[in-house]
Fold each of these.
Amino acid sequence: MREIIYYPDSFQTERLFIRPFTDDTIAESAVKDIIQDVRREGDSSLVRYAKILDGATIDSLFVTQEEIENSEFYMDKNVKIAIENASRNIAKFHKAQSVPETDIETLPGVRCVLKRVPIERIGLYIPGGTAPLFSTLLMLAIPAKIAGCKEITVFTPPAKDGSVNKNILYSAKVAGIKNIVKAGGAQAIAAMAYGTESIKKCDKIFGPGNRYVSIAKQFVSNTVSVDMFAGPSELMVIADDTANSSFVAADLLSQAEHGKDSQVILLSLSESFALKCSSEIDKQIQKLSRRKETEESLRKSKMVVISSLDEAIKIANKYAPEHLIIAVKEPWECADRITSAGSIFIGNFSPESAGDYASGTNHTLPTGGWARSQGGITTDSFCRTYTIQEISERGLYSLANTIEVMSAAEGLEAHMNAVKIRIGGVE
């Protein structure tokens, strides 16, 4: 990201913002084998893969209730308080998303109702490894609970000693989660999709993960519903001279540190700001513990100087970033013109990390351009809808001619007769 690209033409712009491509052929083959093993061998395959892939020896696939309940005694006090504070904000925002039932008469005597009910059995994947994402557990479990899902099971990779990260355990306790399975990777997704001797098949799978997890979700999506096919993390920043270069540099680094496949992009309306931001990145990266991963990500990222805010908005809508920070003089005016983004952050004091942890919005968001056609996780993601209609005799008479004409035009005579027989038109 050390190179600054100045005023690219339309052809250059088209090529600049192509996401990095990864050949997943080998990973796909491995995931297919893992899924087949889990379907064939069940619990024993999960224990075996915990040993092979996580280096973990586990006596039981499930975390005990005692471990969950006692997790708070092993917590850092400040982390504990932070989890509780974030939980309150997440719950407040997601409770506010409750939608009233739709119940209307489209014509006199024609009543139409839309019902919204919770999905019964939910599986939540929580990444472990070098960065156990206990914040993701809060982001998924809290709205699932608010929606009213009856069975919520968390799947997360075990540590080498067979334990589960204490921050994940305490987050589960705060969110009211009772079931935690010590399984990660593609094998966890397979267990959610198909079930095992001790694990019930889930109705819907949620949660981000690495390439293997994402590929596994794609493979099982013909069997079970999944939230989205989340890929590497993304951040785009639109900034002008009113932005703070040290703030923007910190934001770019905060997403780049997720891993080598992450992509961050600066669209600067000022040459001097781009130079200052680049200098700040060089300075701040020296202090990061995940400097190696961050450097690899920055090599695939972009810093571009463009001529106008209109151009920046056009690029952002086409790229459809997972996260978009708008640090310009009139940020809300700009935001109102954004049609494709997972989550937007307004102004100099709205870091992306606030959305990742504690502002209240959900951090499970579409990546890879999917923000053009879908949004992030909401309380409604954990529900399904169905409709009811009740039609009186008077109401059917009002609809009869319309139904008869349309069904006849489609050549579906029995559809037409189902109406006529009720109003005396068929002997």
Amino acid sequence: MEKFYVTTAIAYVNGSPHIGFSLEVIQADVLARYHRLKGDDTFYLTGTDEHGVKIFETAKEEGEDTQAFVDKNAKKFEDLKEVLNLSNDDFIRTSSLSHKRGAQKIWMKMFESGDIYKDSYKGNYCVGCEAFIPEKDLDEEGNCPNHNKKPEILEEENYFFKLSKYSDRIKEAIKTDKLKIVPESRKNEILNIIGDDGLHDVSFSRPKNVLPWGVDVPNDDSQVMYVWSDALSNYITAIGYEEETEQFKKYWPCDVHIIGKDILRFHAGIWIGMLMSADIELPKSIYVHGFITSEGQKMSKTLGNVVDPLEYVEKYGVDAVRYYLLREIPTTDDGDFSHDRFLSVYNSELANGIGNLVNRVTMMTERYLDGKVPAVTEMGEYSTGVDVILDQYNKSVDEFDLKRSCELAMDLVNYANKYIDDEKPWIVAKEGGNNLSEILYNLLESLRYLVVLLLPLIPDTAKKIAAQLGLDTADLSLDLKWGGMKEGSLVEKGELLFPRLEEQV
């Protein structure tokens, strides 16, 4: 049995969950569920980033104790497990004592390597990014490109990390795919950032009199860790790095970090340098997704176009939201959330596609075969076509193209629907043809395959289909062999999986 450890970036708790983070945790969930179906020993981590200037200032503005403020907001993110039907095995909070101790341990490892030193620094500090922004990265107006806001000029004495010392090793790890970055365009982007000049040393702490809310620097209680040195270590502290537990030894190195494109330089630069400094094995890969726009525009409270994932789940169901985000947002690129497009995809692919196929096949099995699975048919041309789709599906998930995975699930639906239209089982039944059982067995077996393809993507729907087929999803795996539907077992037509939406599109 192989192991598979997948993480998301941890969400900053100065607000409520947004659709972009929902996409990220759903993407990670698909990978986790897929690897469990493969039989891998899987661990899926997500969580919240609870320190830094933004948190401290927002709590102060709202007149709340900082810990109470992060407790309240962290719960909104923890609740996503139920809201979005996530299967994460743990949820890390960086305000927890175990995380703080682990973060302090890696700090001391880096200090002992001679890679932490004290110096004064003056630079452009963006509160939104929690980062000093080099002059060359500001836009023409001198604003941070991510937040469209002028950074503050800060001058203070901090601890620094000798990131420059590891620049060549980081570059080599990325170039050779020892650290694989997906997609290729993001790999090229970070290599361009490193460039010929290499990475520069980075500020790694803040004076406590400026920021009292953070993890104490272990060898200087007048300073707290800068948010990135604290937050990035969550990937190891959550699985027992402080005490080097069996869990840590089993799951590290991480197989996949899933992150947004705006934090690539921190994960592929600073984080990798930290691990090298502390002599910890590197993660195997970083998968990078893009941003979601709303109705073709950048989401903003001012424009009033921020998409609340919870509202959509409440109104249309969790699987409709999961499917749209996976199907319509290119997995490693930017995409748009449009209400009209959401309704269109729901009706065409979920209601008329998946829902209609399941309804047709179970109804015909009840009508023509008293709801009993007929005798197993040998593999033939039809089943070969199903296996081709399965192979392509596996490839698409392994290549982190989850949009393609959804399309392939729909390819199977369309393949089965075409088979129904070509073979016309209602005419075969009327004329007493002897191949009715073969046609219906092929279709029932197609639904069994479809259940497996849908389990990582829209698990609730997959389980409902499995129940109609008399299958237990706990017994299913990606090691599919034709002939799994057992002769004589009962099939029952269930409720409509996706009733058509009559809203104006």
Amino acid sequence: MKTKFILTTFFSLAVCTLCAQDTRWWKGNLHTHSLWSDGDDYPEMIADWYRSNGYHFLGISDHNVLAEGERWIHLEKNAGGRKAFDRYLKHFGKEWVEHRVVDGVPQVRLKTFVEYQKKMTEPGSFLLIQSEEITDQFQGRPVHLNATNLKNHIPPQGGAGLAATLQNNIDAVLAQRKATGQPMFPHINHPNFGWALQPGDMIELKGERFFEVYNGHPAVNNYGDKDHLSTGQMWDVINAYRVGVHELPLMFGLATDDAHNYHQQAVGKSNTGRGWVMVKAKLLTPNNLIAAMEKGDFYSTSGVTLSEIQSDGKSFSFKIKAELGVTYTTWFIGSRKSFKISDDIDKRNSIKPNEAGIGEILSQSQSLEPSYKFKGDELYVRAEILSSKKKANPYVAGEYERAWLQPVKPDNF
């Protein structure tokens, strides 16, 4: 019996070790644009940049369109112009690039998703995911929602208000998921773009688990201003009410590029390499990535890298991969069960959520292995890391690298 116990214990440990070794971190960007809508480069060129710069997956999410069907555009009178075409032709060659002259007009054919996916995908190394930015509005305010791993195009659904417009588009994505059996998910894009959305528009959404806490486009106002919440503050208000009042699942935070400009790297341009997600999954497939993200097995970053994240419901800890000469400050942020609940939507959208006990700094650390022990009265705890390293090609001047870890709940909640 003793021998059997030892062998069983050894086998269990071996399986646990194997499970831990079976997953790895995959780097990806879920929000980017090409010449199929308002980007200034060809999808293959964009995919090549991400593939060549250490990314494992990419969703090119053009506005209200999937890259399908035959489409020819003016070779010179497009957002990329002759410069983009010349680079495209030089890189991929005349065997791949299709162009012609019709009635004196030079044209180039945009490759479909099926075509460029087949050319650019490297199994186990680089994956392209079909995506769309469902671009809607309510009374002139932008309401944008990304749909990742779509099978079929979804037009904007409209609605009787901001929250209703979001919900209708979310429902359309989830309906397609149910009808096709293909894993896919919606996420809310840049809520501060045009100062369009407030926490009250997102708190009670059903079926939505993700929003952009960081977006690399220079016009999206990630950090808010004196009259508007930052996206980080929004995140806390959303989750305090979702968990503490409405008993809804936590909302997770994404970092994305929202790149449109590929020929000039500069502040004021929407470039590549500004924000991404690191997903811990077994395989580089849409099914594995989506399953991991829906469990919260990922973090978002604009440069800070982690090697390990652990949470057992009693404590929350992780390890930072340090760069030489760089220091890191970690804040554990959360809301307690005793936060001041308000039925007034305007107060929920207040620019001082900390006065209501929302998004409190629960602990601060300079360690490379920060940890937090739950007290038991927290609704959730998330972590945010600020590096002393300035961001290369920042979306605003003077920006420092950061990381955002997903919120977790104590085990007694």
Amino acid sequence: MTDKKIKVLVVDDEYSFCKNLRNFLTREGCEALLTTNGQQALDMVKDEKPDIMTLDIRMPGMNGYEVLEKLKWEKGLSIIVVSAIDAPDMEEKLIHAGASAVLHKPVDLKQLSETIKKLYAEKAK
């Protein structure tokens, strides 16, 4: 993707989804970190300082929307919300809450790669 490894935090309660995304991101030249819950995602953002986060919106406990609200003002972090809900009003709500982009499950890996590159390039400006 770029000369510098983009650090991507993958947050999804389905561990198999996390592992598959990590494998893809690693092949794309990214450093991928994984977690399956919202609270740990908040902690990892502070400790690991990822460039980009992919965030599942439907998770038990602290859901993705709550994580998004708590990270709304986190400087330097682009958040790609991954949603199983395909509704235009939901997408608008997520962007307003701080999402940088919204992708829908099943995730199109080419679209994900392009979105990561675009958001990282925008951040570098």
